[in-house]
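> forwarded from #structure-qc
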């Protein structure tokens, strides 16, 4: 059986989407003749935790740990809440940033390149170099963000000659929040130089979308393979459908994902459609930015909000399956059209219709259309959003609100892991 060393920052009890991809690959790789060995930080600073995910770590898997020094741990001394938000990707609106937030963003972008976990690189390379030689490891896989983990893979390849695969769950210099890091010209160039070097030194790259694949093809000639995120069989109790006409957003609701056309459409339906305001409920499950909450208040929708905050992955799956309609929103920019939110795949197998709002030519728009799981609208198409909500509402009243998906099996975690295992042979 081939031995593969997986270097990842996010691992249970980390919560959020970053942990799911490699937790599921590790679960299924042994079925396809690959033994995964996982390397993680011993004392990480996770902005979100979900202790129930520990139960999903396969029994008997080898997990190696090494201490990490993290600036986020130091910064939390001054403001734990601000540090937690920034480390989880919730960056305040530029006009509303405090001095401390501006300082933290500048420090993060200019002093810790490529990110705040870069101090883990040197001790990890020293430790893993010896482990690889002593344990017959065939391949090293690094997954980012944090992209500093790719530097571990790059140095291990330089020192041992081992095959190295770099997995990009998100892009590096073109991801939405990169521009908010207040980069100097020197820092911006250093990010690009490291990005290019990683892509040219890796034996091959993994990405999660076709758009990212095309973007990276302009940087490197190395093979780039698309393996999307996916869904797994979740053994959770299915709750009854909500009695209310619930529109549920699950996951981080960032300031940049603030669709005013949605809030306007909802406010109009409340005024115009008989019975809508008595039936409607907006469920917010996960961290929601203050700017989003203020906009909801601006459109007088606050009385309809059920803000559940962050919940375990298990409870999130239950909420997905019991909500009437699922809301998926991505930032409206050229940089984000490659982002396929991990929750999309869980949404698709929840058997609930999806209302998605995002940028033109978004990769996930095609997936929703191909699988017949919902409706995708651009940020300037309020009429489509309103018509879709009204259609869903009338089907809800008729007790006939459901979807008829097709072709979902290709996105199962087991099938995706087989694709990965085939690449590793």
């Amino acid at each position: 059986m081939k031995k593969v060393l997986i270097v990842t920052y996010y691992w249970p009890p980390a919560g959020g989407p970053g942990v799911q991809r490699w937790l599921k690959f590790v679960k299924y790789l042994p079925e396809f003749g690959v033994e995964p060995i996982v390397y993680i930080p011993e004392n990480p600073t996770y902005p979100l935790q979900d202790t129930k995910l520990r139960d999903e770590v396969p029994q008997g898997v080898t997990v190696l740990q090494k201490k990490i020094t993290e600036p986020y741990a130091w910064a939390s001394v001054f403001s734990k809440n601000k540090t937690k938000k920034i480390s989880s990707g919730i960056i305040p609106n530029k006009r509303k940033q405090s001095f401390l937030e501006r300082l933290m963003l500048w420090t993060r972008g200019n002093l810790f390149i490529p990110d705040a976990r870069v101090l883990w690189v040197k001790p990890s390379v020293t430790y893993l170099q010896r482990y690889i030689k002593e344990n017959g490891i065939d391949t090293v896989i690094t997954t980012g963000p944090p992209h500093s983990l790719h530097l571990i893979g790059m140095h291990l390849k330089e020192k041992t000659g081992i095959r190295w695969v770099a997995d990009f769950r998100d892009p590096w210099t073109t991801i939405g929040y990169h521009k908010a890091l207040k980069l100097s010209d020197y820092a911006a160039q250093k990010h690009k130089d490291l990005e290019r070097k990683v892509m040219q030194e890796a034996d091959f790259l993994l990405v999660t979308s076709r758009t990212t694949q095309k973007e990276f093809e302009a940087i490197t000639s190395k093979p780039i393979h698309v393996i999307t995120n996916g869904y797994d069989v979740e053994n959770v109790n299915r709750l009854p459908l909500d009695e209310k006409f619930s529109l549920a957003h699950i996951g981080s609701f960032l300031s940049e994902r603030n669709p005013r056309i949605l809030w306007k459409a909802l406010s109009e339906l409340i005024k115009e459609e008989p019975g809508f305001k008595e039936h409607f409920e907006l469920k917010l499950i996960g961290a929601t930015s203050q700017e989003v909450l203020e906009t909801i208040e601006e459109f007088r929708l606050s009385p309809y909000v059920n803000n559940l905050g962050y919940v375990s992955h298990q409870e999130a799956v239950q909420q997905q399956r019991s909500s009437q309609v699922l809301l998926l929103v991505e930032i409206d920019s050229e940089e984000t059209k490659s982002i396929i939110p991990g929750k999309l795949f869980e949404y698709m197998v929840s058997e609930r219709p999806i209302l998605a709002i995002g940028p033109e030519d978004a990769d996930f728009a095609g997936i929703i259309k191909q699988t017949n799981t919902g409706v995708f609208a651009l940020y300037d198409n309020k009429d489509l959003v309103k018509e879709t909500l009204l259609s869903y509402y009338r089907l809800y009243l008729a007790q006939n609100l459901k979807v008829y998906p097709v072709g979902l099996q290709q996105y199962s975690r087991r099938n995706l892991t087989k694709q990965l295992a085939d690449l590793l042979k």
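QC bot note: The first strand starts at residue 2 and ends at 7. The chain has two domains: 2-227, 245-407.
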